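Listing S7. Sequence submitted for prediction.
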Amino acid sequence: MFLKKINGNVTDYEFYNSVLPHEKRMNKFLSNIIIPEIVAYHIAIGYFKSCIFESSFDIMIFNATYMFCDRVKASKQLKYKIKKILTSKYNLQVINEIPLQVKNINYNKKKEKCQ
């Protein structure tokens, strides 16, 4: 389930015990899995197809991650793929998009806390 905001505010306790650990987990996932794959793909395709200019490794990393963050739009196709992953990998079904509501479709799993 998602945390509920009371009066639009997040308490210090909620931030340090729920939000911050989740952000750290996401940063680790992005840094260790997603971003290396995106950067490697960007460099490899750019090299093999001769479609990007030579520059430093740092600039290549910046360019690939900038494109990743700047060009992602919430298209119907992207939403479909995300919903498919949520269902097949995490046993979650999107039941409403605004606000986002999901339900656990595997009732045997115990809910885990953010920490």
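Caption to Listing S7: primary sequence and predicted structure tokens for the chain studied. The mean pLDDT is 87. Strands lie at 92-96, 101-104.
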